[in-house]
């Protein structure tokens, strides 16, 4: 199973997806998974990725494949 997915027309890795969600660089990322939810803005497919923005923090982030919507479990 490939860890690369198309997000807003671009092929992204788990790291790139996490950086899009975080709007910053990240240290570690897990594999991309399909979230069991639809985008609240456009109804598109939502991807989930766990990542570490720093050594002391683990964040789960979600990002729509079709629009700018994203969210983290910090919210
Ligand atoms: Zn969307």
Automatic annotation (TrEMBL):
Protein name per its UniProtKB record: Small CPxCG-related zinc finger protein
Organism name: Natronorubrum bangense JCM 10635
